[in-house]
Amino acid sequence: MNADDFRAEVSSWLSQALTALRAEYPQTPFTDQRLRRSFEDRLCAAGWSGLGWPTELGGRGLPINLIAIFYEEYARAGAPQGVNLIGHGILGPTLLLSGSDEQKRRFLPGIIANREIWCQGYSEPDAGSDLASLRTRAERVGDKYVVTGQKIWTSFAHIADWCFLLARTDPDAPKHKGISFLLVDMKSPGITVRPIRQMNGETEFNEVFFDGVEVPVANLVGEENRGWQVAMTAASYERATYFVPRLVRMEEEFRDLVSVAREIVRDGRPVGDDPLMRERFARSYLDVQALKLHARRMLEAAARHEQPGPEGSFIKLLWSESHQRLLDLALAVLGPEAMLGPQEPSAPRRRHWQFDHLWTRAETILAGTSEIQRNIIGERVLQLPR
Amino acid sequence: MADAEHIELMREAARRHLARYPEALSLTSRELVAADVVREAIDLAVEQGWFALRVPEESGGLGLGMMEATIVAREVGRTLAPGPFMANIVIVPALCRLSDEREFAALQEGLLEGRTFATIAVRKTDAERALVEHAESTTDLLQILQPNRSTATAISLTKLRPGWVKQRAPFDPSAPLHEIEGGVDHGRTLSLLSEQAGRDLFAEIYLWLAAEGLGVSERAGELSIEHATRRNQFGQAIGSYQAIKHRIVDDYVARENAVALLEEATLAYDSSREDRNERAIGAYAAAIDAAYSATSHCVQVHGAIGFSWEHPAHLYYKRARKIGAMMGDALSARAALGDSIFKSGAEVAA
Fold first, then answer.
1. Is B325 on the interface with A (CB under 8 A)?
2. Active site (catalytic) residues of A
3. Which end of chain B is flanked by fewer CB atoms within 10 Å, N or C?
4. With a cut of 70, which residues of chain A have pLDDT below it?
5. Does A378 lie at the interface with B, CB-CB under 8 angstroms?
């Protein structure tokens, strides 16, 4: 399909869908979880999911350039974030790469239709950056695994139908070699979910306790004790879907912030007339320009089906820290108005700057901390000693 | 328009020819590069046809773009090669293109015949000291009169006369420095075609210096990595310590950004895109920032030996800051870019 036609189709659908959404939820901010689920359901019902997945598995088999266009238009339209990002973005691709035919048939349609929400059971209180040291135990008993342990920072566990879990199946093996990847029904007896409030006031993540939870062997993805490899392979493949919307969003935020800086007057002049502010804007402008150039190169490599390398770490590091700089600048531009908290409704046509600012403090931590990304770049790209 | 292979060949050739530097500067045993070492570098450039790069074919040149010129600039930065390269590879041909004045054409002719070489001073006000590099190897002085950060109004051209020129101890020991007494009074003032011509002249200067700064930052980064890998303290290579590793990675990230921005900026300039002036100053801001940090970290990572005259780290540090002194540091370049963002429509060009 022609790129321009596709872009027009996406943008037109989003426009009418968002108009309908706003009519139905006139007072509700786009950060509200029920509104987000509702929109995501509509998106999936209209066929806007599994864009790159094989058609024989219910996907649309689109090439990467069109997928990138979809995400650009999505971000430009300011559409709400879904709640099943983990299902669409991580578990789905993992099953495509490592799942059995049976698992693909059973689980992919539920993601595509947004019927089943997923959460990711990876981190533990003692296993964050050092994830391979995880201790949640999955003991093989007949045709089941019995899972006991605790996960933390599990986003959306409070609404999830399913959880994909990394658990230790061989405590005697070297740590990366004794882990298995399991699919767990969140309605199973023995699961307790405790929400955790985040810095931005939302309760999007949780602690999840597993107390003798039974998981059928059929829900093992890949081979027993090869779970680490299953998890790591999927991590590097989602280059386009992860970064394209974030970069587009950042560019939109930059433009909006310039407008806000022109509007707000302080010390007798628009904030945007202050040379010190201008220098900071220029810094963010260069951040966005550089990110776009790197992303373009990354997408070109993905389109050539090149194996992903450490460039994902590079872009993640650069994007997350650039985003923090931009949202730091946003608070500086807002001035006294920034005394209002993230739950305070924002002015019409204005973003939720305070909410977004606080969320950026998570962006340098999730999906590999900045420190870990620097280690990866230093060791794998620059060959510095470990 | 250049293709990737042709660019690579140019880069390899430039690197090969400049491989004798910085050792040939003999700066471990001298305070200032010798005039005959500079002379040899100029001869090398003449031999390689670098002064013809930006001259149109119809005037006897190679008719190449800033893309090619910045390849040479980057290798000059990597090796700290001495000589009035920017003035003669970029500025003299630019003035011929951006002005009708016959004097510039005569200067270019002389350059192609190896008779005349120019040096430049960028003058913001009359009161400023006119400091020029390489007065010892050049014949003509071009003073670029600059009312604001990113444009020129006029150029003053004069023959250099020994009586006006006083040697000064330079910050950057790889380039002899002189002060011109009497400044712009000596020159005949020549005009550019238009305000845009003034901006384009500066765009070329920014692109050259961005590339040179990148070269400096690249080599400084390599030296840091080599040292961090070899040097052992407390039982391990110091590059395994995160504070050192991460600082080196940050410099790498900054440099890769600057490379991407410079490539896009030279593309924009060579295709006369509307965003070329803004791109050039943005590329310069990113590159000079990367150069400052990579070179300070190079000294730091080397410890005390990095501070000594016996190790080349200080030469890279000084070359970066000499460039910043001449054309402004990252802060001032970003201030100019900020002005441009707020004056226009804040369209972040793709």
1. no
2. 238
3. N
4. 235-240, 347-349
5. yes
